[in-house]
Amino acid sequence: METPSWLDKEFVERALRYSENDDTIRVNEILTKPATNKGDNYTSEMIRVSVNFHRNMNNKIIKENRSIIVKLGLTADGVHKDLIEQAGLFDTEINFMTTTLKDMNSILKDTKLGGNCLFTQRKDPSVLVIEDLAPLGFRMADRQTGLDLEHCILAMKGLAKFHASSVAVCEKTPHYKDMYNKGIFNNDNPPEMTKFFTSGMKSLAKAVATWPELGESYSKKLMNISEIAYEKASDCRKRNDNEFNVINHGDFWVNNMLFKYDNKGKVIDHIFVDFQLCVYGSPAIDINYFLNTSPSESVLINQKDKIIDIYLSELTTTMKKLGCKSHPPTLTDLKKSMRQTELYGFLSACTVLPLVLVDKNDAQNLEEIMGQDDSAFNNKAYDGEAYKLTMTRRLPQWNAMGLLDL
Predict the structure, then answer these.
(1) Domain 139-400 has what CATH class?
(2) Which of 67, 259, 327, 393 is most buried, taking the most CB atoms under 10 A from its CB?
(3) Count of CB atoms within 10 A of residue 178's CB?
C-alpha cells in the first residue's frame, strides 16, 4: 500500500504534541512502511512510522526516536470501504481505546491489556495513532500452525483479566455496557457484513461436496442453512442481563493478539490488539470464537477442558482482587453458556478459520475475496488441505449437535 499524502511530518508532529502534551516537539524525519502482511488484517490498513524528532526540556534540546502505528480505514474506494464505515468499526475502537481500555488498564496495574492510544481522528479519514508494541518485544504468532498449549494458556489468562477488569469498570461506569452492542454477529450490521458470512458458508458447502469423507449430504445441509446461519448466530449471542456478562474483545483470534518471548524462545507474555468489534455479553462469545479459530487442532482435541478451567480460575481470582460485586460464573454456568453460543463458534470455524489456515502465498484482501457480487466471492482458503482436515473432524460433531439442521 502507498503512504497517503496527508501522513507527513506535520501530521505526525501534531499527533505527538497531542499525546505528549508538549508543543516544543519538532519532527525532523519520518519513514513509513506497511505494519502487516496481506491476510493479517481485513478491516483496516496499518502503517509503521519511524519518527526522528527533538524537543526542548529544561532549556536543552533532546533528540528522540519513536516508532508508532497509524491505523486507518480502507483507503481504496469501494463497497467494502463503505461497509467498514457503516458498521462504525472505527468509532467503536476509538471509544474503547480512549475511555474503557484506559480504565481497565489502570485498575489492573500489573497487566497491560493493549497499547496506548496516542491520537484519534474520527473522519476524513478515520485514523488511530497507537503505540507500537514491537519495540516492547511483542509480535504475532504463526496463525497457520495454530497456538500451542503455552500460547493458549497465556491468551486465556489474558482474556480472563480483560473480562474481569471489564466487569469492574462496568460496575463503576454502567453506561459502558450500552456502548458496545454490535459485534461481528448482529442483525443490525450492514448487509455487506452478512454477505461475507453467507457467501463463506456457500463456499464451504461447495468445497465439502468434493470431500469424500463428508460429501453430498453435508454439502446440502450447509447450503440449506447458509442464508440463515448469520441471523441465528446473531440471536444466540444476544445479551441476557440475568446472566454473567463482560465486555468481549469480540474478534479474539490469533492475529488480534501479540506475544512476547524470552531469549530461549519461550513465550512469556500476551497483549491484545484491534478493538473494533467489542461487544457486551456472555464471555462464551470470546471463548467459543477463540477455540474455533486459534488453537492447534491437537490442543483443541486434548486440552480444551484445561484451557477453560484456567480461564475460569484466572477470571475468579482477578475479579476477587479487583473487588467486583458481581459473582463469576461456575464451571457449569460457563459450559452451559458455551453450549448456548456454540453456533457462534461453528460459524466462526466455517468462515473465519479458513482465513487463519490459508497459506500465506494464497492470502487475499477483502476486496479480492468478496468481489462485487455473490458470484464473484472467491476465497481460496477453502481449498486448503489443513482446513479440510480440521473440518472433516469438526463438522460431524456439530451435525450430531443439530447445528446443521437449523
Answers:
(1) alpha beta
(2) 259
(3) 10
